[in-house]
Amino acid sequence: MTIASLLASKGSRVVTVGPDQSIREALALLAEHNIGALVVADAAQRPVGILSERDIVRELVRSEAIFARPVSGIMTRDVVMGVPQDDLAAVGHTMTERRIRHLPVIEGGRLVGIISIGDVVKAQRDRYQGELDTLQFQVLKSPAA
Amino acid sequence: VTGPAAGRPGTAERPLRVAIIGAGPAGYYAADHLLRQDGLVVEVDLFDRLPTPYGLVRAGVAPDHQKIKAVTAAFDKVAANPRFRFFGCVELGRHVSVDDLRGHYHQILYSTGAQTDRRMGIPGEDLRGSHPATEFVAWYNGHPDYRDFQFDLSQERAAIVGVGNVAVDVARILCRTPEELATTDIADHALEALAKSQLREVYLLGRRGPAQAAFTNPEIKELGELPGADIVVRPEEAALDDLSRAALERSPDRAVQKKVEILQEYARRDPTGKPRRLHVRFLVSPVEVIGNAGGAVTALRLVRNELFATETGTLQPRATDVVEQLDVGLVCRSVGYRGVPLPGVPFHESWGVILNEKGRVLDPTTKRPQPGEYTAGWIKRGPTGVIGTNKPDAAETVAGMAEDAASGRLLDPPEPDRAAVERLVRQRQPRCVSYADWQRLDALEVGRGRPAGRPRVKFTRVEEMQAALGRPDE
């Protein structure tokens, strides 16, 4: 299973924010779409960073006057990115090990999607569930559907 | 979700009417989930372009894997629900259109699968003797659209590109003895052709290493137990490279370790002189299909690969400058499936699936759900997973359908009526096949198989099926 199979039924909508937009605008986007992170993308939709709830919380503790500041000031720049052909097992391992919650997916330098650790866990659960059902069928031959 | 609001479809007086296009596992699982919704009364009509149901369980699952086909018993249970109907031999875009369906249903679900294969994208791919594995599989399983295809089994050497489950099926069928095949429900035309097969050497070609091979352990074990073929693995290709070993140490995976052990055991085996040899190769990619002056395949040019780790830790192949030639007269590519767009349904070209979010079909412009249209199975998520994977997949889609039914985001059909659909379909396709008709065909096939001790002998032409149902030629 690859990232592509996960993106296929996720919709290709990725909520992005520009590096020069304000934290206030970014917060509005997070709230509007009920999500935990935004991909920061330049005008050509090339990802240049990621802005998560945690980035904002961390910064707020330091200063309450961050709302007008640009996203580029507090975003995480060192972002691990995936490609559609990446194996989900490897992706899941890397995200867990490196505590990455959101992974932008790029193809030919352009952003084509984003996956969360929750997406990866769900895909793996569905895979095991499916294999279990199939095996049960072969062993018990009892219709479980 | 607690059922429909007042006046909304989903009650006994006014059932929620759903059309499902494609009678494979995803279609049946979706029907099952729909018919089991608490507090929501649903009527399901399942359409298929073939007279026979079950999709790839009939036309894809290998004939020597009858146990897997036992899942059809669960599908028949779904079909026994009085609120379920089957319309076989009815094709979307030919006999009925999406607009026709909008006239009679509150919701439409597409579960048409991935009907074509991905190409290798190398020169010579279309030479005579180079085929998609999908065609070979459909042929030996008696799919009516493929029954007259020809595969040159007078060749002595064949290569299958890919090491997924389909590639393994093809290799195994090519290596089975006629006696073994004769106890299966393989199509008669394939049984006859394979009995005359001259194949001696069959190659499975994986572009990555043993730890990355997509086949499952039961499948690779089965290849080592074939009565008619010795399995051959090169020790140097079965050995783990440093990156794969490091990855396994970082995140131990029992199944992968076992897979590598099985392959390394094969690498230590000596051939026992069985009539055929099945070679499993790793870290090689075809870069060209070579042909003769007559345009027929004579060889594959292979490049040796090495692995590298992507940012996410996935090990991917990269070509080295080591090239070899593998002489083969028959090539089957099995490098993935791809969905085919349906007329009038938004499609995502890069993923080869219907444009959707968790099974809700999206409007290509607004990227918002298109009311009343849904998808499940391979045409929703791409060609991954086993049959059972379609169950949670369909459940996700049906959860959205139930939510939309509760909030009234539905189509507004002028004629949401069972009888009206029956009239329309019979008028457009008088030879349509009901579930009762299919069960007659099923009993006939099983009866034809009995004298030879076979699970069934399939009808492989639509006309044959119609004649068996007592319908005169058109």
Give your account of this protein's structure.
The complex is a heterodimer of chains A (145) and B (474). Chain A has 145 residues and is an alpha+beta fold. Chain A is built from five helices and five strands, in the order H-E-H-E-E-H-H-E-E-H. The two termini of chain A are 24 Å apart. Chain B has helices spanning 25-35, 56-59, 66-69, 72-79, 98-102, 133-140, 165-175, 178-181, 188-195, 217-223, 235-238, 242-250, 254-268, 378-381, 390-407, 418-428, 435-449, 462-468; strands at 16-21, 42-48, 84-88, 107-110, 116-117, 130-132, 157-161, 201-205, 229-233, 276-281, 284-291, 297-309, 315-327, 330-333, 337-338, 347-348, 353-354, 356-357, 360-362, 369-375. In chain B, a hairpin with a 4-residue loop joins strand 16 (347-348) and strand 17 (353-354). In chain B, helix 1 (25-35) crosses helix 15 and helix 6 (133-140) packs across helix 7 (165-175). The longest helix of chain B has 18 residues, at 390-407.
Major sheet of chain A, described briefly?
Answer: 3 strands, mixed
**Helices and strands of chain A, in N-to-C order?**
HEHEEHHEEH
Compute the number of strand runs of chain B.
20
Q: Give the termini distance of chain A in whole angstroms.
A: 24 Å
Structural class of the secondary structure composition of chain A? alpha+beta
Averaged pLDDT of chain B, please? 95
Low-confidence residue ranges of chain B: none
Helix content of chain B: 25-40%
Overall geometric form of chain B: globular
Q: What is the tally of helical segments of chain B?
A: 18
Identify the biggest protein-protein contact and residues per side: A-B, 45 and 49 residues
Mean pLDDT of chain A: 89
